[in-house]
UniProtKB/TrEMBL annotation:
Gene Ontology CC: membrane
Encoding gene per record: LOC102147390
Start and end residues of each Ig-like domain: 158-236
Organism of provenance: Equus caballus
Signal peptide per UniProt: 1-28
Biological classification of the source: Eukaryota, Metazoa, Chordata, Craniata, Vertebrata
PANTHER family: IG-LIKE DOMAIN-CONTAINING PROTEIN, SIGNALING LYMPHOCYTIC ACTIVATION MOLECULE
Localization annotation: Membrane
Protein name: Ig-like domain-containing protein
Principal subcellular localisation of the protein: membrane
Keywords of this entry: Glycoprotein, Membrane, Signal
Length: 300
């Protein structure tokens, strides 16, 4: 009679230990580190994450071990189980690619400056996806390198609007909203401050910020930073100017734009009192990032 019939708890513990050991063996054989070789001499593959901006360019670089010689690289687009071969590059062929498929989509935008590099220009959102380089080495060795490309929209130029402004003895109370026109997918926003009290509390809505500014702090400013994983734009507002003019004009001019991003510059500052019709005059860019007072929050 075995131990299980004598002690059911001992039987259960023994079975659980055996199952755990089997599970660990399956996991250890099913997961390979990048660059590991299987029994057939094939590289299990390495994975590279790439990011680009629509209209920009991106580089794909194939890595090879020291002492090896490349015979051919085959570039493909699409998932591993259903990919489309784009082109082939053979050694000693002056790196001139031989196109196989997808010429209409890529041929005018893809450049192969050398054996181990490929560049895509004028990126579109449709270029996002998986690319792979099938590398054939002398002696029959092969490897696969996988690239995951994500193409983001350029971050639109932001602007700061005054939602409300009021004064109490010694204080100016302001509610500002940072806005970004156009596509706002995957955008994050942060507020940075200069010469503001430490006790300032950020608003719950990351795109809107309420502050109370001592009237004695004329040089205080706020910078709205709008970004995604690849691009960022900023705009800075002088709070002293808002308080100086807002007490008389803002109750009737709710929502007035006081600062907006400028083309060609990430840091710009504009101010035009609501009672004036003259165009906004440029101020000075923010020279220091200041202290973050708004947590990053993705736009939903």
């Amino acid at each position: 009679m075995g131990p299980c019939s004598e002690d059911p708890h001992l039987c259960w513990a023994s079975w659980l230990l055996g199952f755990s050991s089997l599970l660990l063996n399956v996991c250890s054989t099913g997961v390979k580190s990048p660059g590991a070789h299987d029994a057939g001499g094939h590289d299990s593959g390495s994975y590279v994450s790439l990011k680009g901006i629509r209209g920009g360019s991106v580089w794909f670089h194939v890595t090879k071990e020291s002492g090896t010689e490349l015979e051919e690289i085959v570039w493909a687009f699409g998932p591993a189980i259903k990919y489309t071969v784009m082109l082939k590059v053979r050694n000693r062929s002056e790196e001139t690619p031989t196109w196989v498929n997808l010429q209409d989509k890529y041929m005018q935008r893809v450049y192969v400056p050398n054996m181990t590099s490929l560049r895509i220009e004028n990126l579109t959102r449709e270029d996002s996806g998986q690319y792979q380089a099938h590398v054939i080495l002398t002696g029959g060795m092969e490897s696969h390198q996988i690239f995951y490309l994500t193409v983001y929209e350029p971050v639109p130029l932001p602007q700061i609007q005054v939602q409300s402004v009021s004064t109490t003895p010694g204080w100016c109370n302001i509610t500002l909203e940072c806005r970004a026109a156009g596509v706002t997918e995957d955008l994050n926003v942060t507020w940075e401050s200069k010469d503001l009290p430490r006790e300032l509390e950020p608003a719950r809505n990351s795109w809107t910020l309420a502050v109370s500014l001592p009237l004695s702090q004329h040089n205080a400013s706020l910078t709205c930073v709008v970004s995604n994983s690849k691009d960022r734009k900023t705009v800075t507002s002088s709070l002293g100017k808002v308080c100086a003019h807002g007490e008389y004009n803002m109750p009737e001019e709710r929502g007035t734009v006081i600062a907006q991003g400028a083309l060609g510059s990430e840091d710009s500052e504009f101010f035009s009192p609501p009672c004036l019709s003259a165009p906004p005059q440029p101020g000075h860019p923010l020279q220091e990032s200041g202290r973050h007072i708004q947590l990053v929050s993705a736009l939903k």
